[in-house]
Amino acid sequence: MRKTLSEIAKLVDGEVVGNSDIVITGVSGIREAKEGDITFAANSKYNHLIKETNASAIITSKDIIDAPKPIVRTENPSLAFAKVVSLVTPIKIKHPKGIHPSAILADNVKLGKNIAVGAHTILEDGVEIGDNTIIYGSCYIGFDTKIGKDCLIYANVSIRERIEIGNRVIINNGTVIGSDGFGYVKVDGVHQRIPQVGTVLIEDDVDIGANVAIDRARFDKTIIGKGTKIDNLVQIAHNVIIGENSIIVAQTGISGSSTIGKNVILAGQSGVVGHISIGDNVTVGAQSGVTKSVPPNMTVSGYPAKPHDTAKRVNACIQKLPQLFKSFLELKKKIEDLESKLKNK
Asked: Most buried one in 31, 210, 284, 327, CB count within 10 A?
């Protein structure tokens, strides 16, 4: 790459502050950057590095007014930098094309235009695949499952029977959609399995990470709302409903029949008990345990999850416990000494 800063600003719809004629020849992280590179600062905690970096220019947020070197002010520095990186090193992925000879397709499978099915993939009776969808090798698509247009399904994904997947959905390796929900009833001391006869609906523009498990509903549907993004190693139980544009981060577990609103963030290793609701625009902190319903527009953290400001105060007190215990022992000793003196008198 060899572009002026003004050319880059035009690409990312940004505003140059400083010399717009400097030539950019590379991209790098803010700590690793050298002269000629452009970097970015998307988080305010890295703003001090703006003065320290060796980069020739920096993509920043609109909050940064000026800097000791040229900057490009943008609405979304991370997105802007991603565009520049794509310009320098465009991603070239060689997806499968056509139907591999070893793929097994039932007689009544319906395929759209420009479909790819990789080696050893199985498509059962009644499967329907939309235009331009790519399915890598060693996948299993169960009977009567419908997959929309422009989807990308990587290797070793299992999509069970009667599942419905929308358009432009990405599913990464090892994920299982439509496995039986975890439902049992104890009869005479023995756990008897409860049939799970529902299904799963994945709406448009959902991204699903690797090794995710999304269970089918007991009767109706487990639903993943439009635009939701799910990280690796997430468990979503039967009858869960997740609203649009939510973010579910790695190792999160959502128990059965819980409802998650729109634009919710469940941070890493958070857990949600069954049969509760989390309102729209809620953020749940990492490793939090949500045991009760959460109203909309809140940030909660801790176990059990509570308003984040309260959780911080509780945590601050916990950190002081060793000091408080030491003070308690000292006070206890003083009281015992005073009681001993009073007794002797």
From this structure: 284
